[in-house]
Specification:
Belongs to the YciI family. The chain has six helices and four strands, in the order ααβαββααβα. It is of the alpha+beta class. It is elongated, with a radius of gyration of 24 Å.
């Protein structure tokens, strides 16, 4: 009987030791935090640019296609330069007429405005924009290196 109790207790203990997940905090990496510009919370300031529907309507499909190609090429160039961290369109219409968004790797609204003005679709007035300061994870730029590994095509 005593052996059965000890065996049951051992099985019970083993079961719960496997059932519990140990969540250890990852080791702090000062070198990476410094490289990414992280504050003590692992965060940093960015600037979000919300692309809006612009005042210019272009009916010529070839011209619009050319502008959108330039828009995409400009995003790629700014990403390669480390200026754009996130870019993408909204999938639904919204009350604010937001069409897409950029997260720029700067806390300067002026610098973000200079960068967004390099976009041919912004220059043509197809897109307008609004600029907002934002605070997020300093590790955000790290996803870009993996994005190239998972995309088969560029739009």
């Amino acid at each position: 009987m005593r052996t059965k109790i000890i065996l049951a207790f051992s099985l019970f203990t083993a079961f719960f030791s496997f059932a519990q997940k140990t969540t250890e905090k990852p080791k702090f990496n000062q070198q990476l935090a410094t490289k990414l510009g992280a504050d003590k919370y692992g965060m940093k300031a960015y600037t979000i640019v919300m692309l809006t529907t612009g005042s210019t309507k272009i009916e010529d499909k070839a011209k619009m296609s050319e502008l959108m190609k330039g828009h995409m090429n400009n995003i790629g160039k700014l990403a390669d330069e480390g200026k754009i961290i996130v870019a993408g369109p909204f999938l639904e219409q919204n009350k604010q007429n937001f069409r897409g968004m950029f997260i720029f790797n700067t806390k300067s609204k002026e610098e973000a405005a200079q960068w967004v003005k390099t976009d041919p679709a912004v220059q043509a007035g197809v897109f307008g924009y609004e600029i907002f300061p934002w605070y997020g994870s300093a590790a955000l730029p790290m996803y870009l290196e993996h994005h190239k590994e998972i995309s088969k095509e560029n739009p």
